[in-house]
Amino acid sequence: MPTKTNDPITMEIIQNSLQATADEMFAVMKKTAMSSIIYEVLDMGTGITDAKGELACSGAGIPAFVGVLDKAVKVIAKKFRRGGDIEPGDVFATNDPYYGGVTHLNDIVVAMPVFMAERIIAWTANIAHNSDVGGMAPGSLTGAATEIFQEGLRLPAVKIISKGEPIRSVMEIIKVNSRMPHVLEGDVWAAIASVRIGAKRLQQLAEKHSVELFENAMSQFMDFGERVSLAELAKLPKGAFKLSEEQDDGRVFNVKITISDTEFVVDLRENPDQSTNPLNASRDGVMVCAQMLFKSLANPNSPANEGSFRPIRLLTREGSVFHATEPAPLGFYYETELRVKDLMWRCLAPHMPERLAAGHFASLCGTFIGGIHPDTGRQYTIIEPQLGGWGASPHRDGNTAIFSSFHGETYNCPAEINEARNGLYVDRMELNLEPGGEGKYTGGRGIVMDYRVRAAAGFLTVGYTRSKFPAWALAGGREGSPNYVRLIRRDGPSERFAFASGLTTHADDVIRVVTGSGGGCGDPKERNRAAVEEDIKNGLITRDRAREVYGTE
What we know:
By secondary structure, the protein is an alpha+beta fold. The protein has helices spanning about 10-30, 35-40, 65-80, 170-175, 180-210, 210-235, 285-295, 335-350, 415-420, 530-535, 545-550, and strands spanning about 45-50, 55, 90-95, 105-115, 120-130, 160, 165, 240-245, 250-260, 265, 310-315, 365-370, 380-385, 425-430, 445-455, 460-465, 485-490, 495, 500-505, 510-515.
């Protein structure tokens, strides 16, 4: 008979209660945030760690965000435990990638210790993109930044709530550094409400089952996560796999992945030095990418926790683009991390096509539009990740118009919200029908989105990759199509670009976002003729193009 502390039913109840708690934290943040990037797009994540900061429950939200939280909590816990300055009711925040923030300054991590009596039994944490945290440019993102000081307010793992009461001076510093202070304040308080409800639920759970059983359940489930990963790792092809790939900006990125029965080793040491522009990533951020790829290979349907990732070993070189050191800027970190994730994906895909499809559009296509709202007179800034096409696999066409693998289950901001809250109109959103991605199975389609500016004088900042080198194909398929932006002036020519910072826009200018199709898989001549006819019928390809690519009559 199992003992009380090893009862598998009770263990499962506690684990599912952790998941329910993280989901409730997510719902609280969604329903109380001020920014559409949070409450509509859901550009956020929640999670729960044990007392040491090890991930106990991956929670909900963007995969690349959830993997940040344990790393941030470890930095906070180490910094404040050293001074013995963690008390019930405290709440902490960090956004600095050199102090546990992992990503960039727009993303604020909020974390709260969960106490039972005088003992910390867990931490609740969340992260979300905030629309403006100061810096040299509205929206706090610009390709012109050469050091992190230009990218906004740095919160180097600080206490913002002490024993349940806000530290007013810290809150005022946060507000005064933003061009949208009330929005930022509202979003921070939404994050605080989220960790507080999570802490309350965990205290109730520990009180019901006992602290000992609560902690034992978290530990056992981490060990279970490791066993699941090792079992799946044993099924993967073994050996060393290498890839070098030129990037849009001319840099060459390199990866070597070595897979054994017990380890998944990612070697990124042979890569360029960190850049003077904000296309750098922190080591912790690159580890998140390795974790995301590994999880997609090692039973993606099982829960993710600290144990799930124990087989990963990451090798980086300090001072390189994948292990930036202070004060390198990291504003567009997400494009660099997407590049390294896609690099690892491409490296392994030919060796395990049943698990990894052809390349997808592989960019957040982050689009930052702002100015003074013509109706309210207030500063507005919208941050839109964009939808695009995913790659085909050996058995099916790729998905059309979904977010990148980095961004997970998020949503596009409805046109009605953008038009009501922000100074623009959404004139159209349709599929991108540019050639590319053909194969026995075709890549999914990207989109074309037109934003028409209302503000008399606004700005546009974008940072897209996979513009010069589109999504890669597999097994004789064709490459996808590129990501780019076209700025169509009301009274002048249009301009096409992939990276631009602080472009001035005027009323009735149109910002046209074009995202790429995914790569194809297999020889296009082998595509099922009925599928080709269906594509023609649906207007996805012309008959002339089908004749050229697929050999149809």
